[in-house]
Amino acid sequence: MSDDTLLIDALFRVMRELRRHYDLNAQAMGLTMARARVVSTLAKMEGATQSELATQRPSGSRRPR
Length: 65
Prior knowledge:
The protein is mainly α. 68% of the residues lie in helices and 0% in strands.
């Protein structure tokens, strides 16, 4: 395996572990993944108006086709 392949494989393993950890923490708080993302986004935008919140696209969301 090339160094690039090993690095990419390691990054994917770290990403999966981070996701698993995030999922477990959200579940422990009684949140679904979708709700945890909303709460996280709102926390980052403290002090934003309702209008500003409405115009934000959640990270990771896809544009409609």
